Amino acid sequence: MGAPLRIAIAGLGTVGVGTVQLLQEHAEAIAVRCRRPVEVTAVSARDRHRNRGCDVSMATWYDDPVVMAREAEADVVLELIGGSDGVARATVEAALSAGRAVVTANKALLAEHGTDLARAAEAAGVPLAYEAAVAGGIPIVKALREGLAGNRARRVYGILNGTCNYILTTMEETGREFHDVLEEAQHLGYAEADPSFDVDGIDTGHKLTLLTSIAFGRPVDFGAVFMEGIRHVTAMDIQQADELGYRIKLLGVAEETEHGILQRVHPCMVPKQGPIASVDGVFNAVVTEGDYVGRAKLEGRGAGAGPTASAVVADIMDVAAGRTAPTFGVPVDRLETGPAASIDTHVGAYYVRLMVLDRPGVFADIATALRDTQVSMESILQRGHNPGEVVQVVMTFHPTVEAAATRAIDRIAHIDAVVEPPCMIRIEDL
Amino acid sequence: MGAPLRIAIAGLGTVGVGTVQLLQEHAEAIAVRCRRPVEVTAVSARDRHRNRGCDVSMATWYDDPVVMAREAEADVVLELIGGSDGVARATVEAALSAGRAVVTANKALLAEHGTDLARAAEAAGVPLAYEAAVAGGIPIVKALREGLAGNRARRVYGILNGTCNYILTTMEETGREFHDVLEEAQHLGYAEADPSFDVDGIDTGHKLTLLTSIAFGRPVDFGAVFMEGIRHVTAMDIQQADELGYRIKLLGVAEETEHGILQRVHPCMVPKQGPIASVDGVFNAVVTEGDYVGRAKLEGRGAGAGPTASAVVADIMDVAAGRTAPTFGVPVDRLETGPAASIDTHVGAYYVRLMVLDRPGVFADIATALRDTQVSMESILQRGHNPGEVVQVVMTFHPTVEAAATRAIDRIAHIDAVVEPPCMIRIEDL
User: Fold this and answer.
1) What CA–CA distance (Å, rounded) separates A75 from A135?
2) Other CB atoms closer than 10 Å to residue A382's CB: what's the count?
3) Helix B178-188 vs helix B162-174: angle between axes, to the nearest 10 degrees?
4) DSSP alpha helices (H): ranges in A145-201?
5) In Å, what is the CA distance from B353 to each residue of B179, B199, B391, B409?
6) For residues A330 and A322, what is the distance between their CA atoms, to the nearest angstrom?
7) Is the same domain home to B339 and B370?
8) Hey, is the C-beta of A205 within 8 angstroms of any chain B C-beta?
9) A402 and A271 inside one domain
10) Do the chains contact at A300 and B318, CB–CB below 8 Å?
11) Structural domain ending residue among the three candidates B51, B77, B104
12) At a CB cut-off of 8 Å and minimum separation 6, what does A108 contact?
């Protein structure tokens, strides 16, 4: 049995407490697997006197996590504070400067500053591990960085935000509208009071950025991610999707294109029989397409104390056992900077829903707009017939480049009889 | 850049050639990720002069792989010969004795001799890696051994044989019978001339044994696996399953029960909406249930040159980067020997199909048999009505212990009017 691996934990929220519980409950099994015990020697959180339901009395308390990261008797600093800057960032930087390994669940921090932090970890010769930052308990970071490392990635995509997936699944099951379901999710604790990070696709974008870096060996480039959330998806869109053979999911997709790496987050209509449509509720899934392995999918719980603690502890066990890899799979100076493709270059099919005054000539106006913008319509369907009233018109476009689809939709939006901004959802063969 | 990792390859069949191609095509990326190049320095195969479509002229040729394993200038010996004994085993033993790391795709060898080989690897202080032995390109060995290592496993199960899954999927899609589809699969090269390893569940059993060892920290115990293949599954059973809301899959299941670890391989009726029913054709999937992570599923191609080479190369890259773990997750002397549960202790629901002479009194005889054996029937259905002729009767039992179900079926088989041995398929909520 080797010397204990000493852990300093910054942040004792749900995940921190779950991690302490896992480390204590399975202490013996972990020691056997790592050939050394893992001990929590220091902790830091906001309120020292709060009862958290876990015993950290054996650990030295620090009011300031940055001081702890610098001074504690610890081999690993666990950053579970969250946020892309401020104290979380300072804690990680202090730990790396002090030559301590870092394990974090902080996707925002890594999406914004991952390349710099990876460089600092390399300079210090310590690992910077973040399995818990992407897709909760699913070991996707390890799978991409090690288990599938022999492949050249073509594409990686997934359902990376359980809150959005829960909302979309519930909208589908109940026929209710977005705001109604969001409110309920907030009451149930599945969504934050400020839901923007989740429902506007930012959280998915953070996670996608990390997957992109590992899969393609690129520096993290969160600024290049196209992001569109799910606020505009209606119960009617979900029903229409169903009739067309699709389900609507918020996906993060990163793919190599002739214009560079395209990173995009948006609602997608995906075929019901495809690999991603069946992933429901709070589950996450990541699909990766490699040149030798073909398509592989990993699915599991994307959030929650247990799954996240599972991922955090796996990282700790890797550090304990001396299993390390460069933060994004290759050394920082070998990450390849290349062009980032714009969403305008995306080629795909489109679903467009319009609210239209039911009067003669509207279809002709739409047809003219499509002809002028060189977009080919696959289908058009008017729901109901009510002369003089507003009715719903649903169209699908054959695969076309997004720049053209956007021009077409913009032209259509300016037709007099179109009374609301059109709703567009991309159709993907994923 | 570190010193090259030198590889000696024993066996240049499909997987060997695929591995050489991958190592050559992605040589630079692999060197960057491992911080050292990987070089094939020695090869051994049956026929030196066969054109294999890959260039191994830079490697030293050995007619005898055992001599190569002992003498070649290599850090790693790749065993891709196959078979649980004979030259494959001798090659691996020679490599470990000579202090060389071993990477193998040989499930039969490890299922039969895994604990001894793990001990030899430990004594030599070298890794024995076998990601390719289970579920092809899916990195499930790494996921269980490292990515989910903090969990206590409750159950692990999966579709582990692409040949059987292809046959069952094709039977379902076409309504054709087993032997017909098997013959076609043999013509297409999806099934061996001697299909027994696949269709009788032996290959699934081999793979399950390895998953069991990793998930539960047990010595490999292939002898304890209950195995039943898919030869007795008929098109009618598949249609009945469909009507009952199930699909039929050959599963390997390992679970902790009050009687010990139960390892079983047999066709299962699984709910269409469950995590495993949608895995079609040559795809494999493994579901693991851990106490913290909950349910996680990994899905991908279970065989073929590309996916298998992907797994082999991942193992090689781990060796190159110095990432190692004990063969079955814990050191051999910490593997826990415990009782193996018998299939008789399994508790589940059952589907039973009978061929019965259509005459009065048969249902009464069946009911008596069930009463006497204390088995509770959920449903019974006679297909067609043809007095004096043979008709089909389909029953389902409520969950019961297998010993009782077996007694009931045995009693029913002895009823005069039952003219063929009953066909039983277990119903699982997986």
Assistant:
1) 26
2) 16
3) 120
4) 162-174, 178-188, 196-199
5) 19, 20, 10, 10
6) 17
7) no
8) no
9) no
10) no
11) B104
12) A82, A83, A84, A206
CATH number, position B229: 3.30.360.10
Query: Which one is catalytic: B142, B207, B249, B272?
Result: B207
In a domain, A14, yes or no: yes
Nearest Cα residue to B102 out of B199, B32, B180, B8:
B8
Chains A, B: CB pairs < 8 Å: 184
Tell me if chain B has a CB within 8 Å of the CB of A309: yes
Catalytic annotation present for B297: no
Q: Which of A142, A296, A330 sits opposite B300 (nearest CB)?
A: A296
Secondary structure of chain B: what % helix, strand, coil (to 5)?
40, 25, 35
Residues near B203 by Cβ (< 8 Å), separated by ≥ 6?
B107, B160, B161, B163, B197
Cβ distance B215 to B288 under 8 Å? yes
Each residue's pLDDT, cut to its tens digit, for chain A (430 residues) gives 899 999 999 999 999 999 999 999 999 999 999 999 999 999 999 988 888 888 899 999 999 999 999 999 999 999 999 999 999 999 999 999 999 999 999 999 999 999 999 999 999 999 999 999 999 999 999 999 999 999 999 999 999 999 999 999 999 999 999 999 999 999 988 888 889 999 999 999 999 999 999 999 999 999 999 999 999 999 999 999 999 999 999 999 999 999 999 999 999 999 998 889 999 988 999 999 999 999 999 999 999 999 999 999 999 999 999 999 999 999 999 999 999 999 999 999 999 999 999 998 899 999 999 999 999 999 999 888 889 899 999 999 999 999 999 999 999 999 999 999 999 999 999 9
- Domain membership flag for residue B145: yes
Question: Distance between CA atoms of B3 and B31, rounded to whole angstroms?
Answer: 10
Cβ contacts of B56-61, under 8 Å, gap ≥ 24: B56/B9, B56/B12, B56/B20, B59/B8, B59/B9
Residue type, B42: A
Q: Say if A394 falls within a structural domain.
A: yes
Chain B, window 235-294: residues with a beta carbon less than 8 angstroms from a chain A beta carbon: 275, 278, 290-294
Contacting residues for B213 by C-beta, under 8 A, at least 6 apart: B114, B115, B219, B220, B221, B328, B329, B335
Identify the closest residue of chain B to A132 by CA–CA distance.
Answer: B147
CATH number of the domain within which A68 lies:
3.40.50.720
- Alpha-carbon distance of B236 to B175, in angstroms, equals 8
Q: Which of A223, A208, A216, A213 is nearest to A265 (CA)?
A: A208
Question: Which of A20, A24, A22 has the alpha carbon at shortest distance from A10?
Answer: A20
Dig out the tokens for A81 from the structure: 């504070």
Look at residues B216, B204, B267, B265 and name the one whose alpha carbon lies nearest to residue B237.
B267
Report ipTM for this prediction. Answer: 0.96
Looking at the structure of chain B, the number of domains it has is 3
Amino acid letter, B8: A
**Between the CA of residue A165 and those of A274, A296, B296, B401, what are the distances in Å?**
16, 20, 17, 38
**Tokens, residue A309:** 């603690």
Enter the tokens of residue A1.
């049995």
Cα angle, residue B178 at apex, residues B177 and B180 outer, rounded to 5°? 70
- Token pair 């959330």 is found at A229
Q: How far is A142 from A129, CA to CA, in rounded Å? A: 10
Task: State the Cα–Cα distance between residues A54 and A51, nearest whole angstrom.
Answer: 8
Q: Of B318, B343, B368, which closes a domain? A: B343
Query: In terms of residue numbers, what domain contains B216?
Result: 140-302+334-343
Residue B158 contacts A where some CB pair is shorter than 8 Å = no
A152/A291 same-domain check: yes
Q: How many residues are given for chain A?
A: 430
Task: Indicate the SS3 state at residue A233.
Answer: coil
